[in-house]
Amino acid sequence: MSGAVSDPTPLARTPLHEQHLALGGRMVPFAGYEMPVRYGKVVDEHHGVRRAAGLFDVSHMGELWLRGPEALAVADSVVTNFVGKLKVGRAKYTAACNERGTILDDLIVYRTGEEEVLVVCNASNLAKMAPHFAGHAAGRCDFADESAATALIALQGPKAVEVARDAGAPSEMLELRPFRLAAIELGGVKAIAARTGYTGEDGFELFCANEHAPALWSALMRAGAAHGIVPAGLGARDTLRLEACLCLYGNDIDETTNPLEAGLGWVVKLNRGEFVGRDALLAIQEAGPVRKLIGFEMTGRGIGRHGYPILDADGEKVGQVTSGSPGPTVGKNLGLGYVPVALATPGTSLGIEIRNKVVDATIVDTPFYKRQ
Q: What's the predicted TM-score (pTM) here?
């Protein structure tokens, strides 16, 4: 007799679990957490974020702190982008690679103080990124993994500033430029506000202590009611980021991909000091990537989902889909995937194998959506 063996590890819950249940959130397992995939219809949450504002619980993300005179230098030695001269109150998107030049994780590095750096990593990678940074910090600066004690709320959409203003956000937050941050107080809660996000829209991400997250969430939901705010789950987060062509770790990038083939060459600065994976990336750059992450639109009926084969004009398999879903804003079924460089030209016709049937698709320019 055989059967599936259930995972005995209980799912973690974010400090906003009760709020999700009260809003009718459909909870699903995600990166070891019980998370809301949607509250109503995913498409309604998607449009709500694009047209007004959405509130996301992203407390599952990892928060790693480096503190001490060498904190910034340690971060700079681990990541691909140049953060060594990052000013206080500024942040950069980057990647961390292994010695082979493939991607351990994509990250945002925030300089929160003269001798303090916050690194935000993906929840699914926390178990490897915490010891990775701790190892590089050893003997150079203090390291602390404060993920379990930190909540993260994302307010995203064209009305995000109006919602934040009505919630009582100070000018230091409202006037932040992209990838800037400030220590603020909002709704009686002390937080770090950053002008960052993962939706392709304007907005903020707010870090606070777990115990204050419900008050902050409630303050933003109350203030947003007049502006059409919606609570948004993992489903809308995925369709929003795909339209904006923001990579998802575990799908579009992982330890089998390098940032140069993934379209992330802009976060790889090879003409500065040493960092993990630099030699390998120099060699890849010199030889030239053999494949490239492309965006495609389905011209036939169907959706190219993760893992589906990508075929060339002769019907030969040349790659596979890494991400795929409807694009509610653009009104087309969209996807990302790796193909040989020789095929990676907008206008090239492809086939996507969907349940043993080949459906037509075309490579297009990316991103699929860019806000005005």
A: 0.95
